[in-house]
Amino acid sequence: MRLVIIGTGNIGRAAVEAAKKASDIELVGVYHHNDDLSEVDADVALLCLPTREIPTFAQKMLKMGISTVDSFDIHGQIYDLREDLMWIAKQHKAVSILSAGWDPGSDSMVRALFSALVPNGDTYTNFGPGRSMGHTVAAKAIPGVKDALSMTLPAGKGKHDRHVYIELEDGYTFQEVKAAILRDDYFAHDKTEIEQVESVAAINTTAHGVHIERNGLSGVTPNQQLDFTMRIDNPALTAQFMVCCARAAYRMMGREQYGAFTTIELAPIDLLEGNDEELIRAFI
Amino acid sequence: MRLVIIGTGNIGRAAVEAAKKASDIELVGVYHHNDDLSEVDADVALLCLPTREIPTFAQKMLKMGISTVDSFDIHGQIYDLREDLMWIAKQHKAVSILSAGWDPGSDSMVRALFSALVPNGDTYTNFGPGRSMGHTVAAKAIPGVKDALSMTLPAGKGKHDRHVYIELEDGYTFQEVKAAILRDDYFAHDKTEIEQVESVAAINTTAHGVHIERNGLSGVTPNQQLDFTMRIDNPALTAQFMVCCARAAYRMMGREQYGAFTTIELAPIDLLEGNDEELIRAFI
Asked: Is B75 an 8 Å CB contact of chain A?
């Protein structure tokens, strides 16, 4: 499988490492975000780009007959994006795998499996402790914030607290900036602590985690308890899973299963290096 | 989907309950193990039968054009059984889903997903505490054992201890029966405690559990930690997952994906009640 990686941020760089470790993948190109992509020649392109740019880049690649994998992460818009990309992928005999990070992504597969095992029950997805991309960006946009880090802290049962570290710009007081952050819609609904620090860079982290718990009934039998916990380096995990999904896209192309798919539509075997017999003997 | 259940033991009875709770499944028949099955008319048959009888019953149903789901649990023979059933299923336009319990079964999907997220690492599957079917049967076969219960106790890192409760038959001493159990190949390799009880029935349990842990590298980044824990009623969980796999078999028939498949070859979405849009919006 001939792979290109588009994007050279945290995830793009980690994807280069993950692709190099896979003996069934040939990394044939790494492109910056603004490069001319009209000459790209590959089976699959990993789109390691900001979420809002994914639809445009995915369409462009699919129209060139190149399958795509992205980690588009706006949960409420994923189904519509899948619909948009579906016919383009089919028309150009390609496969697009959407939202292939960890949440949405691998966590989605866990939640679907949990609901199959325990159809009647409650699932709680608890994130962190770890850095929230969205909240960090929101905090940085507040006037007077020179740099920020917003940590997501699990508060139980799918609820989260926020701990925001900020560096102040000259001419602002901590109290006025703190009040502005707490008024922001990103922070207004959760318990939020704000702390001033000398250097955000010095405490920044790519560690993250999630705890998914489900309790309910299998058939008529209650108290079936399922629990998934992950403690990870975030870009490394995201990039690794995207590379595995590139493998799945390539296999689906080989079976002429063209179209756009989310991770819960993938068979786990397609994510893994090896042939059917080796994988079934190893994992079943 | 028109479902029949073959077998009326713990799992067959729990499967009846699980099937009744699914609004997309019509339970059209429940058969005892020795019934005449030549008139069975259904889309899918759940084979809730002893493992060694699965190959014969699966072939019989598939040749009638009825898809099958089983929980065949001899790990080392699953790939060969899949090969045997593959062409029969294809020839008769049916789907056979093998080894659809929890281990092999749903645990296999978890292990495959864990290896995709962390390709270079170690997975440990720790069972219990819970009743081991195989070890219980082995203990019951020892002369002088009137009834037995062999509990599997996790000893860490995929190793297990055994705690065997026995009722003695008249004319045998505890010491001689204990020695015979400890010589048996099922028990000779694990740390095993034997305890005499008045009544095995009084302490018997269907509770079980598993803890799957993996630690390793995503790309070149170490210390990626994944952890799955399940505490369940065993027959209820097994039966529920088999019913979900019957749904997957039916959907695959609809897409003309005929053949024999293990659980790591299934997409999680096919296990769940609902249409693509509902399920993607709910789980992604």
From this structure: yes
ipTM score above 0.90 = yes
SS3 B123: strand
Residue B100 near residue B198, CB atoms below 8 Å: no
CA distance B262 to B278: 26
Strands lying side by side in the sheet with B221-233: A120-127, A207-218, A221-233, B221-233, B207-218, B120-127
Identify residue B228 by its one-letter amino acid code.
Answer: F
Q: Closest partner residue to B268 among A228, A241, A264, by Cβ?
A: A264
DSSP B56: H
Residues whose CB falls within 8 Å of the CB of residue A56, separated by 6 or more in sequence, listed in order:
none
Cα B113 → chain centroid: 18
pLDDT in tens, chain A (284 residues): 999 999 999 999 999 999 999 999 999 999 999 999 999 999 999 999 989 899 999 999 999 999 999 999 988 999 999 999 999 999 999 999 999 999 999 999 999 999 999 999 999 999 999 998 889 989 999 999 999 999 999 999 999 999 999 999 999 999 999 999 999 998 998 999 999 999 999 999 999 999 999 999 999 999 999 999 999 999 999 999 999 999 999 999 999 999 999 999 999 999 999 999 999 999 99
Chain A touched by B77 (CB under 8 Å): no
Can the peptide bond before residue B104 be classed as cis, meaning omega within 30 degrees of 0? Answer: yes
Decide: residue A251, CB within 10 A, 0-12 exposed, 13-18 middle, 19+ buried.
middle
**Prediction pTM value:** 0.96
Residue whose C-alpha is closest to residue B221's, from A176, A233, A20, A139:
A233
| Dist CA A130 CA A205 (whole Å) | 8
Dihedral, CA of residue A29, residue A33, residue A37 and residue A41, to nearest 10: 20
Quote the CA–CA distance of A6 and B16 in Å, as a whole number. Answer: 51
- Reading the block at residue B73, the tokens are 């649990």
CA distance A265 to chain B (A): 5
Q: Do B117 and A240 touch (CB under 8 A)?
A: yes
